[in-house]
Design goal:
There is one protein chain. This protein is an alpha/beta fold. It has two domains: 11-105 and 215-292, 3-Layer(aba) Sandwich (Rossmann fold), CATH 3.40.50; 112-213, Putative methyltransferase TM0872, insert domain (DNA polymerase, domain 1), CATH 1.10.150. It contains 14 helices and seven strands. It has a seven-stranded mixed β-sheet with strand order 3-2-1-4-5-7-6, with helices on both faces. It binds S-adenosylmethionine. The site of S-adenosylmethionine has 21 residues, from helix 2 and strand 2.
């Protein structure tokens, strides 16, 4: 396990929105608690009256519980996928945060095969409660379905070749590890792509992970449900890490939220500073969008 914590992305921008949300004593709903980095900064500000943090990953929740120990009296830790948890949550919140995707710990320490650079079991489930792991999807789906999945969720232009290579390989022997899958993908694409800017398995891994965890469906449902839990003057912020996530966040802010009388706070998404991108490469693709519920009497 790495000694250091996942570095919270776009922390200054998140704290600025947190400062604008609600009044002096704030209630917060953190839909992706992760390592609790954003949570710690908000709790340390002294402005939080109650903090509810959700995560689907029991290991992440335990790590956050340990880290936020000093604020145990204000913090509530909820295990589950946010779209399911939100459907049964009561009350309203001044600040709601979605920091989508995975934390560094999940890529580096989870042993669940999220990284194509590691020799780990091909699992990719955020929660052990999910029935199907990456192994099931990779071995069960028909070639055309796998190709569509890799194209749709990975925006991978070599999806057909990759799906064909996976299906050929699995008839010889089961593909048990992340490294084995990465090797099959790499050997099925043209050499120019193999030596390109990103690892050739990046998009395929993203696609399978999204499919295993229904990440996009949960994002769309989660944002809509959460927006109904905003207090007057409350702000909902969403940080996305790839174009498919941002497309859903954008549609939510521009169409859904607007039609429900919420204000979009920035026409264009906020992005990390050059300094943050340099010091934390994982932040490079981040985009932050936010909406606000007007107080009574305020125009939209
Ligand atoms: C990028 S990390 C959050 C990092 C956190 N903001 C911090 O500063 O430490 C995203 C976290 O959200 C969790 N997650 C992703 N999708 C989820 C979902 N649909 N429901 C619940 N948790 C989810 C992941 O397990 C991961 O721990």
């Amino acid at each position: 396990m790495t000694g250091s914590f996942h570095v919270p992305v776009m922390l200054p921008q998140v704290m600025e929105l947190f400062a604008q949300a609600g009044g002096d004593g704030k209630t917060v709903l953190d839909c992706t608690l992760g390592a609790g980095g954003h949570a710690l900064a908000m709790l340390e500000s002294g402005k939080v009256t109650a903090y509810r943090g959700i995560d689907a990953d029991p290991e992440a929740l335990e790590r956050a519980r340990g880290r936020l120990f000093a604020y145990a009296d204000k913090t509530d830790f909820i295990l589950g996928f946010f779209d399911q948890v939100l459907a049964s949550i009561s009350g309203t919140f001044d600040f709601i945060l979605f920091d989508l995707g995975l934390s560094t710990h999940q890529f580096e320490d989870s042993s669940r095969g999220f990284s194509f650079l590691r020799e780990e079991a091909l699992d990719m489930r955020l929660s052990p409660d999910l029935e199907d792991s990456a192994f099931e999807i990779v071995h069960r789906e028909r070639e055309d379905i796998l190709a569509n999945l890799i194209f749709q969720y990975g925006e991978e232009r070599y999806s057909r070749q990759i799906a064909k290579a996976i299906c050929k390989a699995r008839t010889r022997s089961p593909i048990r590890s992340s490294a084995a899958l990465a090797g099959i993908v790499a050997s099925s694409v043209p050499p120019s792509y193999r030596h390109g800017r990103i690892h050739p398995a990046t998009r395929t891994f993203q696609a399978i992970r999204i499919s295993v965890n229904d990440e996009l469906g949960r994002e769309a449902r989660g944002l809509e449900i959460a927006s109904k839990l905003l207090s007057p003057g409350g702000i909902l912020a969403v940080i996305s890490f790839h174009s498919l996530e941002d497309r859903i966040a954008k549609r939510f802010c521009k169409d859904f939220a607007k039609s429900r009388g919420l204000q979009e706070l920035n026409k264009k998404p906020l992005v990390p500073s050059d300094a943050e991108c340099a010091s934390n490469p994982a932040s490079r693709s981040a985009k932050l969008r936010a909406v606000r519920r007007p107080r009574e009497g305020e125009g939209t």
